[in-house]
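Training component of the fellowship. As part of building independent skills, the fellow (R.M.) carried out the full modelling exercise for a liganded target. The chosen ligand was nicotinamide-adenine-dinucleotide. The inputs are recorded below so that the supervisory panel can assess the work.
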Amino acid sequence: MTGGAGYIGSVMSRILLEKGYNVTCLDRLFFGTDSIKDIADRINLVRDDVRWFKPEILKGIDAIFDLAALSNDPSGELDPQKTLEINYKGRVRVANLAKKYGIKKYVLASTCSVYGFQEGIITEESELNPLTTYAKANMMAKKEVLPLADKSFSATVLRQATVYGFSYRMRFDLAINGMVLGFYRNGKIPIMRDGKQWRPFINVKDTSNAFVKVLEAEPELVNGQVFNVGSDEQNVQIFDLAKLVAESCNLPFNYEWYGDPDTRSYRVSFSKIKDTLNFKPQTTIRKGAKNVFDALKEGRLNPDDPRTITVKWYKHLLGMQQFLKDTEINGVIL
Ligand SMILES: NC(=O)c1ccc[n+]([C@@H]2O[C@H](COP(=O)([O-])OP(=O)(O)OC[C@H]3O[C@@H](n4cnc5c(N)ncnc54)[C@H](O)[C@@H]3O)[C@@H](O)[C@H]2O)c1
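Fellow's submitted model of the complex:
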């Protein structure tokens, strides 16, 4: 797994270990090792970069989940060149090396945000409308990764809905988690204007299980395929989502607006993954939001951890990189 110490990867690693798999995590550890410290002795941790790791580490690997990325739209705009290097070229490199080293399955962690703004219900066949560097990099990676699929190499792209729920590398920059945090902090849910935009959601354990479904599926079902990952019931308009989050936390509904009107709005069909792989998410938005709220109340999540807002943390790392340059110290931070 690349990006195995991240928000999704740290949950996915635990699920794979529980299922008895041997797990290797290749990660630059931009967010540190807290997320995997209690499983560190059960995984093979490789601190390295998808752009330049030595391919020999792929020997003996059966399948790759490729999660490493600058993981959202605002982070992707901090340095678009680096975003393309990692999220596009990095993934294409990993997929090509996987094929070269005889790895049987490769799964790319993509996003439904490649659909951008669109009317109607979107399927895997719909036109893409990537509006940001992050979304474009996902689209470009898919275009080069899927043609690698052949009889002995299975390549699959999973376009995940926006993820929510508790993780060991927490992200409060994801819509549901951010709403819960705002509620916890000052009793008001922050809502991005104008609240009418549609978004699909999925719990972090459920999206991890979708990768496992692909891993365990007959290659004929998944090879060369794109799947949207989520469920039709969890397509929600943002204002309704805020009400749902308030109900889940058992608190009166109070909110505050922020931001410019969101240009991204999409409703997605998840029939293909349901019909092909019998994939059905087990967690509801209600349960996932309550779980995050409880974790905050019980001190299992630190609301002030600066690493939980991805773009701020990467900005901080880029600042350190500039500092190294200015002081002529050799070293790569990002
Ligand atoms: N969280 C979501 O809502 C969501 C939705 C759709 C798609 N995705 C995609 O799923 C994947 C995982 O997302 P996440 O939320 O866990 O993000 P994350 O930022 O928590 O995790 C990404 C991990 O990748 C590592 N990484 C970054 N660049 C690297 C590099 N060059 N080499 C090695 N490791 C590197 C980071 O250290 C981090 O641990 C990403 O590809 C993301 O774009 C996430």
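The panel noted the following from the submitted structure. The first strand starts at residue 24 and ends at 27. The chain has a mean pLDDT of 95.
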